[in-house]
Amino acid sequence: MEELAEEAGITVRTLRFYRERGLIQPPRREGRIAWYDDHHLARLRTIAALLERGHTLNGIADLATAFESGRDVGEVLGLGEPTEETPVRLTPEALADYFEGEVTPENFAKALELGYLATDGDEIVHISRRLLDVSAELVREGVPLSAVLEAGRRVRTHADALADLFVDMLAAHSAESELERLRPLAKSVVDAELSMAMDRRLRSRRQPDAPGSTTPENVDPTD
């Protein structure tokens, strides 16, 4: 314990407090000797980094609980399954930097539940570089991470339905070996339809709410 505390730059008293709070796992015991390893040291350094970023010990404890209940990266990504997405490996503190102030236990647990995040030892893996970057950009633009995750949950339902539609259609008219090659065509259809749907939605938001509504074009300059 003394050696671990020294390596982590904390006191033995603080280390005991973290153990009592469940912030680090119990040591491996051999008789009367308790052995700590690199995983314990990594957890202590993560705790220090998150404290520096304004997280409370209660919040860190909740994050640790969510982290330990998360699914393994192999389970989330599917070992050997083809994918066009590039996973990203992150430390917990790096994830906190991506979404400054938004990595709450609730948001972290939701991301784990959706399968956006997975665990691999002491690391966190985000399943998609594109989703990670877009989510971070939306948060920087002022959209709460909780709203981004809820939108992702709702999009997932529609995306699954679209995938079923196109896979069934292509399978009915193409050889099984051709499905992966034709995949970009389905994505192009969805991208074009979403673009046109956004056009329609934005136009409708710009329309007057009622026939008698006042717009800049019909305001009387003498009023």
Written overview of the protein:
With 223 residues, this protein is mainly alpha-helical. The protein has 3 domains: 1-52, Multidrug-efflux Transporter Regulator, Chain: A, Domain 2 (Orthogonal Bundle), CATH 1.10.1660.10; 70-163, 2-Layer Sandwich (Phenylalanyl-tRNA Synthetase, Chain B, domain 1); 174-206. The protein has helices spanning 2-8, 12-20, 38-52, 57-69, 73-77, 92-98, 105-114, 129-140, 145-173, 179-206; strands at 28-30, 33-35, 88-90, 117-120, 123-126. The strands form 2 sheets. It has a 3-stranded antiparallel β-sheet with strand order 3-5-4. Strands 1-2 form a two-stranded antiparallel ribbon. β1 and β2 (33-35) form a beta hairpin.
Helix/strand layout:
Layout: H1 2-8, H2 12-20, E1 28-30, E2 33-35, H3 38-52, H4 57-69, H5 73-77, E3 88-90, H6 92-98, H7 105-114, E4 117-120, E5 123-126, H8 129-140, H9 145-173, H10 179-206
Antiparallel strand pairs: 1-2, 3-5, 4-5
Helix pairs in contact: 4-7, 7-9, 9-10
The stretches of 5 or more residues where confidence is low (pLDDT under 50) are 213-219
How much helix is in the residues? 55-70%
* Spatial strand order of the main sheet: 3-5-4
Count of domains: 3
Give the SSE string: HHEEHHHEHHEEHHH
What sort of overall outline do the alpha carbons produce when their principal axes are compared? elongated
Q: How many beta-strand segments?
A: 5
Please identify, by name, the CATH architecture of the largest domain. 2-Layer Sandwich
Give the CATH level 1 class of the largest domain.
Alpha Beta
Question: Number of helical runs?
Answer: 10
Per the CATH scheme, the topology name of the largest domain is Phenylalanyl-tRNA Synthetase, Chain B, domain 1
State the end-to-end CA separation: 79 Å
Give the radius of gyration: 25 Å
Main β sheet profile: 3 strands, antiparallel
Round the mean pLDDT to the nearest integer and report it.
Answer: 85
Measured by DSSP, the beta-strand proportion falls in: 5-15%
| Helix-strand category | mainly alpha
